Each structure stands twice: as C-alpha cells, then as structure tokens.
Request: fold
Amino acid sequence: MAFWSSSMLPLLGLLSLFFLHPFSTSSSVHAIRLGAVVRRPSPDVPIFREAPAFRNGDACGTRDVDGIHVSMTLDANYLRGTMAAVLSILQHSTCPENLSFHFLSAQHVPEIVSTIQATFPYLNFRVYRFDSNRVRGKISKSIRRALDQPLNYARIYLADILPANVRRVIYLDSDLVMVDDISNLWGVDLGDKVVAAPEYCHANFTKYFTDEFWSSPEMAKTFKGRSPCYFNTGVMVVDVDRWRKGGYTQKVEEWMAVQKQNRIYDLGSLPPFLLVLAGNIKAVDHRWNQHGLGGDNLEGKCRNLHPGPISLLHWSGKGKPWLRLDSRKPCAVDHLWAPYDLYRSSRVSLEE
Reply:
C-alpha cells in the first residue's frame, strides 16, 4: 500500500481521519491493568488507548523463520510518537504476528514498559538498557539540543545490544508513521552492503561538514573512491552481522573523537555515519523516507510532501506533529499523523 502526494494533500488529511483511524474515542482514562495488578500511571508517562489486535494475513509462517526485527528508542518525551509509529507498522503489515520490536531505553522506567503492554497486549517486544555513559564523553554540541541526547546515539551500538540471533534489523526513528507493508522494506537485497537506506544525491553533501573539515587535505580525502550522498539514519535496514564483523561501531566512534577535537560537523549523530558509510550503502526507493516533515532544525517551518509514492512519512526536523497538533497550530502534513495517535489527554482515574 502506498499513496501519492500532490494537490490532494488536504483531502488526504481529511480522509485519513475517517478511514485510517480504527479507534473510538473515550472521555475516561483509567489506570493500567496488568493481569490482576492495577498500576496508577506516572505523571511523566502519557496514557494511551488500547490498540486492537491485528491479524491481517494468512499463511504468514512463523516468527522464528519469517520474523522481522524492528528497533526504536524509548524516551518519555517521544513516547507518543513511538506508539503512533508502532500502530502504523502493525496496521499496514500483512503478517503483524511476525514482528518483533527491540526498544532501546536510557533509563529503567517500569511505567513505560507497562504502558506498552497495556496499549499493545499482543505485541512481541523487548526493552534493552542503553548505558548513556558509553557516549557522554563523545558527544559534541550540535545546532539543536535534542540532537545531543545520548539516546540519539544508541543506534550506533545496535550490534552490541541486540541478541546474537538478530542478524538484520530495521532501525526507525520515533517521529514517523508507515503506510506500507514493512516486509517490503525488510526484503531489500543488501548485497555486500552493511546498511540500506534512501539516498539523496541531489542534496549539497558538503554542507554537512565544516570548513575545517574540507580545508584539511587529510580529512578531505575521506571520501576518495566513493560518491557520497546524504542519507537519513532514522530509517535504515542494518545487516547486524556485517556491522559486527566490520567493527563499524568503532569506526563511527573514531570520527566522534575527531569531532571533539576539531569541530568538523554541526549536527548530532548523522555526520559520523556519513563519514563511515556515505557512498557505500544500498540505496532504496525514496518512498521509504518522506523525510523533513518536521521542518528545518532551527525553526521547524511547515513543509509539504514531495511528489511521488509514499510508504513512510517522517517528521525529521524540529517540529513534531503531536506538539503542533496540541498547540492548535498544525502543519497540513500533521493531519496524516493524527489518525495513528493513541494518546488520551483526559484526566487519569483508577480503574474500577
């Protein structure tokens, strides 16, 4: 399933509200019940409606043989986005029973885990603790504070964190929704590449690095023999085995150490990925990352959809759809995210 962008955008927004949203609204919000246990939700953790159980296809095989592994980060500030992303993936998957989610969290917050269990009772997932100390001394200040958070760097350590039996994983940011079957992305042939992602070769690649980088003859030779293109690390298919064997975590860390000394880029975790992998990834169709919907990194101005088919909508950039919707100053594209929002905004009460 995919849809197309054009002057139909306002209509798409309205239609999505009526046809994509599978939930009825409710004015009452209750405590979370896990078996016989009733937990009063934390004031720091949002409350969500329970999602339905999706059983979308026949002859789906088994999770052991036909499983699809998805990894995302868990952060209280982005939890609303994560829940919407998970819902969209399940809803559009032919075989949702085969999905396994691997969540990375910088803190042990039992309320977040119980919230996921209560919202998606049938979800197969596991939460892994990411030790923020592993990157604290390696992070340099970027142009936006959100990019400096340790959890933003957790994707670098996926191969160290995930179990050995996870040999391939799709890494996804929390500010996106999928409107196509994730198995179509999962099935990409990586060949001998470590990462698959949409490439954007029309972008001005030089702007991702400072004058100090390009003025250094030694560093400027980094891309010799490659034709580097920008790619967004918020949507990646990663060959975890090749990543481990090739020592790619260490390669990315080495560039982070250079950045601490020389200020060779202004963004967060993206540039060291580009330094290691740009020009040497498997390019997939742009439909799998309609990115930049959050606007630029400084002001978050509204942006329209790019022309062409769409399988994934990504609010990368400063503006997040849930914040703009709550402020009652949404961008037009935010209405395409709203049908997947499970958030309950009314007052919390104990379940009777």
DSSP finds 13 helices and 18 strands in the chain. Confidence is low (pLDDT under 50) at residues 4-40, 346-352. The radius of gyration is 20 Å.
